[in-house]
Amino acid sequence: MDDLFPPFAPDPNEPRPRRFKPVPFRMIAPNMITLMALCLGLTAIRLAFEGKFEPAVIAVVVAGVLDGIDGRVARLLKGTSRFGAELDSLADFVNFGCAPALILYGFVLFHLKSMGWIVALIFAIAMALRLARFNAMLDDPNRPEWKKDFFVGMPAPAGALTAMLPLYLHFLGFGLESWAAPAVLIYVLAIALLVVSTVPTYSGKTMGKRVPRSLVLPIFLFGVAAFGLLISYPFEALVAVSGGYLLTIPVVAAQYRRRLKAEQAAVAGERPAAGLPAGSE
To answer: In Å, what is the CA distance from 71 to each residue of 27, 31, 49, 140, 240?
Structure first.
């Protein structure tokens, strides 16, 4: 019976196979930024439970800044991956779906009891649906190049930051008591509808690939001034940015329609030429 199951004796000269390949740091760095943003989103939820709404809002804003950085760092380092894209979407749902919904509910929507909670749920679920649609559109090979300048619907960070506009106003002295809860409910519901809508909004992903030399110093000065305003007057700046962004949506939608009509006209003009028989010109 011992001969049926002889002991296994590996060849001592055979090299041990490497179980895992080393991962380049350029693949890890963008994901670390995403995880830091996720930590801020979870911390914002905790702060909201403790009634510390001002630092909670700041945590979500900083998470939005990191969300805008991680993708650009990945493209700069050539460290993009499917894992990073999926991790970014999951982090965005927590940072810009769950955290703002819970902050808004704990701040003012709780006055409306079940109705306020339903709107908070709608906002969070709308953000999840928006992110799922965004991931599905990334795999569309037939998407025209010019459409990369536009998002379909309001992007997740913009939806979260504009949804918290009532909190910015409250921090500036515009007291929002229980009487303002219905107005906040309608506003948050409108933002949720914009998030899942097909209204085109500006992307900005193709902006800044090439900057004219004459604009380098003005851009530096503008960036320093904007950073100084954000640090010195954070909530005034957030009110201005949120209001300005909402006002640009109709302008961007009109620009999108013009470019879409131009593309359709170009395609319609090519079809008759493509259908002509040889030698008919």
So the answer is: 11, 9, 30, 19, 25
Amino acid letter at 259? R
Q: Is the dihedral of CA 162, 167, 169, 172 positive or negative?
A: negative
| Token reading at 14 | 């055979």
**Does residue 52 have a pLDDT over 90?**
yes
Q: What is the pLDDT of residue 24?
A: 72
- Residue 159 and residue 147: Cα distance in Å, rounded? 20
> Are 53 and 103 spatial neighbours (Cβ–Cβ below 8 Å)?
yes
pTM (two decimals): 0.81
Rounded-to-integer distance, Cα 263 and Cα 183, Å: 41
Return d(Cα 199, Cα 221) in angstroms, integer. 33
At 202 the three-state DSSP class reads strand
**Amino acid (1-letter code) at residue 216:** V
Question: For 159-185, what is each residue's pLDDT tens digit?
Answer: 999 999 999 999 998 877 778 889 999
Measured at the CA of 156, the angle between CA 69 and CA 26, to 5 degrees, comes to 25
Report the alpha-carbon distance of residue 105 to residue 117 in Å, rounded.
Answer: 7
Contact residues for 33 (Cβ-Cβ < 8 A; gap 6+): 66, 69, 70, 73
